Amino acid sequence: MEENYSAPVHVSLMEKNVMFGIGTTVFCVIMMVTVLMMALLGAPCVLLGVLLLLICRQVCKKDNMTLEFMFQNMSYRDLYWG
Question: Which residues, listed in sequence order, are joined to residue 18 by a DSSP beta bridge?
């Protein structure tokens, strides 16, 4: 008797979590930078954070995880560099 354990999975369970159309890591980095800039320079830095979010949304329009993959690749150490 052959057992088949495959079951259909809903599409939403296979997608990564995103916030405002961009990856959660990128969103958190933008929010942290915005809060730090607000503490140092004042409230007008909120406009910079909103502008960065809008730019990131345009970059991630076709693939939500584009910037997330770029952040992951930048965080890897280059072990083969002399």
Answer: 23
Q: With 0-12 CB in 10 A as exposed, 13-18 as middle and 19+ as buried, what is 5?
A: exposed
Residues 27 and 17: beta-carbon distance below 8 Å: no
pLDDT tens over the chain, length 82 residues: 567 667 777 766 667 777 888 888 889 999 999 999 999 998 889 999 999 999 989 988 888 878 888 877 777 776 666 5
pTM of the entire predicted model = 0.69
Inter-residue contact 68 to 23 (CB < 8 Å)? yes
Cβ contacts of 73 within 8 Å, gap of 6 or more = none
